[in-house]
Specification:
The complex is a heterodimer of chains A (112) and B (112).
Chain A: E1 4-6, E2 11-14, E3 19-25, E4 32-38, E5 45-50, E6 54-58, E7 61-66, E8 71-76, E9 85-92, E10 101-102, E11 106-111
Parallel strand pairs in A: 2-11
Antiparallel strand pairs in A: 1-3, 3-8, 4-5, 4-9, 6-7, 7-8, 9-10, 9-11
Chain B: E1 4-7, E2 10-13, E3 19-25, E4 31-37, E5 44-51, E6 54-57, E7 65-66, E8 76-78, E9 87-94, E10 102-103, E11 107-111
Parallel strand pairs in B: 2-11
Antiparallel strand pairs in B: 1-3, 3-8, 4-5, 4-9, 5-6, 7-8, 9-10, 9-11
Classes of the chains: A mainly beta (112), B mainly beta (112).
Chain lengths: 112, 112
């Protein structure tokens, strides 16, 4: 079992709709959770981080963390064609020496 | 804004050559990472450093080696490049167990 799992997609959403991305992790003791966006040929860039159970909103993005179920999700509201990218979930597992571990990423396509 | 730099951005080199990919950060981060990523594929951790004189191999076996003699510098070396080493190499750094990792712009290596 991979430490961080994501559906590879592609997730196709119409412009203006909500894109919902999920990520599950295996280490129950994980403390820190991140969502990165990566455009084709570019480096990953941080969108959001979340440390506590619940929701965290930043503009059109909302991260949701449920430690009991060991999943973290990302909602993108009012999706735009410019949101088309691969979204990477990253976790710092408890026994990793604070080493950041990435999931395989979910490719999102926003269609005008 | 992230202050992490990779050189060169692009490198085309012949089989058998020795190469060093440079990565430097000015943020004083203790942790540094090297990832390998093929087009459209997931990030694979190949090397990790907790701090000066502390390195370990990542999840993906790599023939490359790294060193961490100074906090800000984390070079990656291939003693004898092969076409199978053709890929994008991404360097990142982070601090503590909660802060996000910042990525450099990457080095796209082609071995002919």
């Amino acid at each position: 079992q991979k430490e961080v799992e994501q559906n590879s997609g592609p997730l196709s959403v119409p412009e203006g709709a909500i894109a919902s991305l999920n990520c599950t992790y295996s280490d129950r003791g994980s403390q820190s959770f991140f969502w990165y966006r990566q455009y084709s040929g570019k480096s990953p860039e941080l969108i959001m981080f979340i440390y506590s159970n619940g929701d965290k909103e930043d503009g059109r993005f909302t991260a949701q963390l449920n430690k009991a179920s060991q999943y973290v999700s990302l909602l993108i509201r009012d999706s735009q064609p410019s949101d088309s990218a691969t979204y990477l979930c990253a976790v710092i597992p408890s026994a990793s020496g604070n080493k950041l571990t990435f999931g395989g990423g979910t490719r999102v396509l926003v269609k005008p | 804004e992230a202050d992490i730099y990779q050189t060169p951005r692009y490198l085309v080199i012949g089989t058998g050559k020795k190469i060093t990919l440079e990565c430097s950060q000015t943020m004083g981060h203790d942790k540094m990472y090297w990832y390998q990523q093929d087009p459209g594929m997931e990030l694979h951790l190949i090397h990790y450093s907790y701090g000066v004189n502390s390195t370990e191999k990542g999840d993906l076996s790599s023939e490359s080696t790294v060193s961490r003699i100074r906090t800000e510098h984390f070079p990656l070396t291939l003693e004898s490049a092969r076409p199978s080493h053709t890929s994008q190499y991404l360097c990142a750094s982070s601090e503590g167990h909660k802060t996000e990792a910042f990525f450099g712009q990457g080095t796209r290596l082609t071995v002919v």
